[in-house]
Automatic annotation (TrEMBL):
Membrane topology: Multi-pass membrane protein
Protein's GO biological process: establishment of competence for transformation
Intracellular or extracellular location(s): Cell membrane
Protein name stated in the entry: DNA internalization-related competence protein ComEC/Rec2
Entry keywords, A to Z: Cell membrane, Membrane, Transmembrane, Transmembrane helix
Main subcellular location: membrane
Length: 737
């Protein structure tokens, strides 16, 4: 039985590694082969093939429900119902619309929308909206999160921005949203948002500082409802009935064991329903159901069977769940505990089991964190040692009981005030720990090094006394495998995908240079969210130079976050920045790093900020790259006049390909082989302009676009081509328009 269940799970999990989905003909053939295999000695293979077919068919249904390419960027009037819990942001509100209808087009079954400066929305409301729709996509950088996969896993067929709207019908069945509003209105020592996260599984109200604290201390799972919360609620009720029965306080006419199991399961399902029934909740409820069922029959149940049952059930219900990092973290944490605590000789005292559980989970989750590109918390074992019992035994019971008793007024509010006070104390303590030991973003590892880390973690978690355990510790040293150096005389160029902005990393053998730092507008700082984590994953621990072309927010906005996150030896800018000390860009300044030549130029007579951009020319073994910032036609003419040799091989598109740049004379004189365009999808500026695109095509210049290909990589000095991250084939990636 376990063999078949494992084979089925492997077939379902294969979906996430497919570069493309098989055709209908292949699916039918594989399904027939799987059905035949079930009745032969190859029945495990049959389970595997049937699981793979089901996953592929389900994924194809989700892909077919995406927005049609012809509707990408169009504005339509549509009607639909708000579902889930709308999230209030600094710019407006973000929400999901279910079963939208439009007279002009067929739409996906679920949309994720943003309404800047929009009115408060409530779940269950019916709205008529004017929406600019986009195919589901997102920024795509090396070793970074894949938003396109995450949207597909949630079966969101399109995203969009609301331009106008009209309420058609008030709330219908939005009880979770009503409860959230009630919780946010109580006095809870300023921790109302944390209570909402704990009770309803909605962490959208937590501040960025709160999330950073939780991530740095490895305690995110405490505020995102997990199996731990479900198991605790069920265990409390089961234990209460068992305690009453033991002391003769339970009614004799009612058999205590069926009642205990039934109440425990009911409480778990109710809490899971309240929390939105995410993957960790599904896994916990399924495992709990199996354990309670076997408990009713007085049979001992091994730990692996419930885990396999839960894994198969979650994937059969939603095969695309495997595209979410939370799926892997949830099951990996439970699998680690099963591996370390089941079938071991001898007994551990409760305090020993508790302390060991923290460090074994930290080691067991290490390979998953590395594979998903998430930060590794160095303080997690110590922080969870205190935080888990604090939340589980004190905060959670008070929060749930207070929520249940809210209709009684003062009693419920008092309990929530106490729960909020305990949460506030915990957050203050965790913030201190996070400052002392922040999270570590590991550089991306080659596959062989990651496999060594996996094997090392398995060996380290073996029972004490086995000789191979020490070898596991040695294998974990693969975490610090040095990145393959850039060859002498060449420079690795990464134009990052930062939407409507610019950030270019240049790496020689021993030096790192960042040209522009990505955009920042309000609380949305892509320097902090995208550029800084990507630099760390690429192995950049410091910058020898950060060059800010000019003062516009789409180029300079992320500079502050970079300065706070990495040591920067020198900063040069084309213009003065209010919050950054920098040296002015000096035309004619030249230097050589590891055989690569760099030179600066700036038009001193430029009238606009764009024309005063600091321009960087890079030459490696005769191959030349020009980083032009936002200079426009006037600056292009001045650069041509000042340049002794204007011909280049690669050009960063001036001003994102605007109509005021990339002039005919400039393209003819520079004659680049390729142009690197950094822009946002369907941006409001219309970049790159159709006339500019036509100019490049007419001159035979190959265009590489971050909106279509994700982050772009070029090794200057190798006479090679440009590679886009989106070129790594995955079945869910579609070409953006």
């Amino acid at each position: 039985m376990r063999t078949g269940m494992l084979a089925l799970a492997l077939g379902l999990l294969c979906l996430g590694f497919l570069p493309a989905l098989p055709s209908v003909g292949w699916l039918v053939l594989l399904a027939v082969a799987g059905g035949v295999g079930l009745f032969t000695r190859l029945w495990p293979l049959g389970c595997f093939l049937l699981g793979l077919c089901w996953a592929c068919w389900s994924a194809q249904q989700a892909l077919d429900d995406r927005l049609a390419a012809g509707l990408d960027g169009r504005t339509l009037w549509l009607e639909g119902q708000v579902v889930g819990l709308p999230t209030r942001t600094a710019q407006g509100v973000r929400f999901e619309l279910d079963a939208p209808r439009s007279r002009r087009a067929e739409l996906p079954q679920r949309l994720q929308l943003s309404w800047f400066d929009g009115p408060p929305l409530r779940a269950g409301e019916q709205w008529r909206l004017a929406v600019t729709l986009q195919r589901p996509a997102g920024l795509l950088n090396p070793h970074g999160p894949d938003r396109e996969a995450q949207l597909l896993a949630r079966r969101v067929g399109a995203t969009g921005t609301v331009k106008a709207g009209q309420l058609l019908a008030p709330i219908a069945g939005g009880w979770r949203d009503t409860l959230r509003q009630r919780l946010l209105a109580v006095e809870a020592n300023g921790r109302q948002a944390a209570l909402v996260a704990l009770v309803l599984g909605d962490g959208a109200g937590l501040t960025r500082e709160d999330w950073q604290t939780l991530q740095a201390t490895g305690t995110v799972h405490l505020l995102v409802i997990s199996g731990q919360h479900i198991g605790l609620v069920a265990g409390l009720l089961y234990g209460l009935v068992a305690w009453l029965a033991r002391w003769g306080l339970w009614p004799a006419r009612l058999p205590w064991l069926p009642c205990a199991c039934g109440l425990a399961m009911t409480a778990a399902l109710a809490y899971g329903w309240l929390a939105g029934a995410g993957v960790p909740v599904q896994r916990a409820c399924l495992m709990l159901a199996v354990v309670l069922f076997w408990r009713l029959r007085y049979r001992h149940l091994g730990a692996t069977l419930p885990l396999l049952l839960a894994l198969d059930a979650v994937l059969l219900v939603e095969p695309l769940a495997a595209l979410l990092p939370g799926f892997w973290l949830s099951f990996a944490a439970v699998a680690t505990l099963v591996y370390c605590f089941s079938a071991r000789l001898g007994g551990w005292r409760p305090w020993q089991a508790w302390t060991r559980a923290q460090w074994v989970i930290a080691i067991g989750l290490l390979p998953v964190l590395l594979a998903t590109g998430l930060p590794v918390s160095l303080s997690a074992p110590l922080a969870n040692l205190v935080a888990v019992p604090w939340v589980s035994l004190a905060v959670l019971p008070l929060a749930l009981l207070g929520t249940l008793l809210l209709p009684l007024g003062g009693v419920g509010e008092l309990l929530l005030w106490l729960a909020g006070g305990l949460l506030d104390v915990l957050f203050r303590l965790l913030a201190e720990v996070a400052q002392l030991r922040p999270a570590w973003v590991s550089p991306a590892l080659p596959m062989w090094a990651w496999l060594l880390v996996c094997l090392g973690a398995l060996l380290v978690l073996l029972p004490r006394g086995l000789p191979l355990r020490g070898l596991g510790g040695v294998m974990l040293l693969a975490l610090w495998v040095p990145r393959e150096p850039v060859p002498f005389g060449k420079v690795e160029v990464w134009q990052l995908d930062v939407g409507q902005g610019l950030a270019v990393l240049l790496r020689t053998r021993h030096h790192n240079l960042l040209y522009d730092a990505g955009p920042a507008r309000g609380k949305s700082d892509l320097g902090e969210r995208v550029v800084l984590p990507t630099l760390r994953k690429l192995g950049v621990s410091s910058l020898d130079l950060m060059l800010i072309s000019h003062a516009h927010a789409d180029h300079a906005g992320g500079a502050g976050a970079i300065m706070r996150g990495l040591p920067v030896k020198r900063v040069i800018g084309g213009e003065v920045l209010d919050d950054l000390q920098l040296q002015p860009c000096a035309s004619g300044e030249r230097w050589v790093w590891d055989g690569v030549r760099f030179s600066l130029w700036r038009w001193a007579d430029g009238r606009s900020s764009n024309d005063r951009s600091c321009v960087l020319l890079v030459e490696a073994q005769g191959e030349r790259l020009l980083l032009a910032g936002d200079m426009e036609a006037g600056a292009e003419r001045a650069w041509l006049s000042a340049s002794e040799e204007p011909r280049i091989d690669w050009l960063q598109a001036p001003h994102h390909g605007s109509r005021s740049s990339s002039s005919e004379a400039f393209i003819r004189a520079t004659a680049p082989r390729g142009v690197l365009i950094s822009r946002g999808r369907n941006n409001s500026f219309g970049h790159p302009h159709a006339q500019v695109v036509e100019r490049y095509r007419r001159h035979g210049v190959v265009m590489y676009d971050t909106a279509e290909q994700g982050a772009l990589r070029l090794v200057l000095g190798g006479q090679g081509a440009v590679d886009g991250v989106r070129g790594q084939r995955r079945f869910w990636r579609v070409r953006a328009q």
